[in-house]
Amino acid sequence: MKRHFPLPTPQELALTGVTVLWGGTFLVLHIAMQHCGPRFFVFVRFMMAAVFVGLLAGRKLLDINRREIRAGALIGVALATGYVLQSAGLRDITSSRSAFITALYVPLVPIFQWAFLRKAPHLMSWLGIALAFDGLVCLAGPAALSLSFGHGDLLTLCAAIAIAAEIVLISLYARGVDSLRVTVMQLFAGSLFAGLMMPVSGEAIPAFSWVWFSCALALGGLSALVQVVMNWAQKSVSPTKAAVIYAGEPVWGGLVGWLAGDHLPPATLLGAALIVGGVLTSELRPQWLEALLGRSSQTLTKND
């Protein structure tokens, strides 16, 4: 009998694992932002991460080629841009509104996938994206849906576009590069880009603090792990499916908060359920739908 609900692959499980880790980083990032600026923190965090992955890659770095340098630079700039713009936008808007606008990367990814990779997402993937996005809206709360659109909103929207571009770029280059070498390059490029943005934005180098240093060290190690896993896993996982998995980040963050004693309101529970439902829906391939899509494809072929 044909299985209509396939078991998750090791790559999908790995992406889920790093998403769980992501969900527990908000507190560390919040603490770090009390002691340094966002661009400086991204600069130090990514440079530490690049060193970690470089030590893991070892002599393999000597074989880095032009494609890996180009891919790493593009992904790294997109990665750093997303982090920096989201942090900058938080100075003017609430965290709930930032979460809602940033969540726009979820529906943007399948559009970018279709436009740049020429690969249309499956209908069930679209449904999963819709459910996941609705869940993120529930988590953001009604205040995030106001129609006003200011400077902070624009910065955060650009961050969402950068995040979507990063996910698609990883899939675009993943199969033709070495995961470790391209990860070193993208982390180094992202760090350099964030550092160059400091004088442009007027952000000063903070006084040394063991607080921001410890936070950067911890999140640098996490960034190293996350980016290596993403570059490896997205060799076989589509950008759209990856985006649905990443949408679970606030769910895991909420779970960590709940375990720490936070109260979860009904809207949060509904949002979490919708996101989980979106992940499951994106995996479904009903036999009747496959047959219908097959007949539609045959009809289009005959008409052509």
Please sum up the structure shown.
The chain is an all-alpha fold. It has helices spanning 10-23, 26-32, 38-57, 66-89, 95-102, 105-116, 123-140, 151-174, 179-201, 210-233, 239-246, 249-259, 266-283, 287-303. Helix 5 (95-102) runs antiparallel to helix 7.
Q: What do these coordinates show?
A:
By secondary structure, the chain is an all-alpha fold. It is built from 14 helices and no strands. It has helices at residues 10-23, 26-32, 38-57, 66-89, 95-102, 105-116, 123-140, 151-174, 179-201, 210-233, 239-246, 249-259, 266-283, 287-303. The longest helix has 24 residues, at 66-89. The protein is globular and about 55 Å long.
How is this fold's topology laid out?
Elements: H1 10-23, H2 26-32, H3 38-57, H4 66-89, H5 95-102, H6 105-116, H7 123-140, H8 151-174, H9 179-201, H10 210-233, H11 239-246, H12 249-259, H13 266-283, H14 287-303
Domain EamA: 14-139, 152-280
Keywords: Cell membrane, Membrane, Transmembrane, Transmembrane helix
Transmembrane segments: 12-33, 39-57, 69-86, 98-117, 124-148, 154-173, 180-198, 210-230
